């Protein structure tokens, strides 16, 4: 499988979808390398 580079907007979109689907904010933040506060905004 080839690596795909995502834009910041796409990364934020995927993070929001993950949180809305029930993944903990802490887990999403760790996966994307950002703070929990960044995921909440």
TrEMBL record:
Pfam families: HTH_23. This is Transposase.
């Amino acid at each position: 499988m080839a690596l795909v580079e995502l834009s910041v907007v796409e990364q934020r979109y995927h993070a929001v979808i993950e949180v809305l689907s029930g993944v903990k904010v802490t887990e999403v933040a760790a996966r994307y390398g950002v703070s929990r506060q960044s995921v909440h905004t």
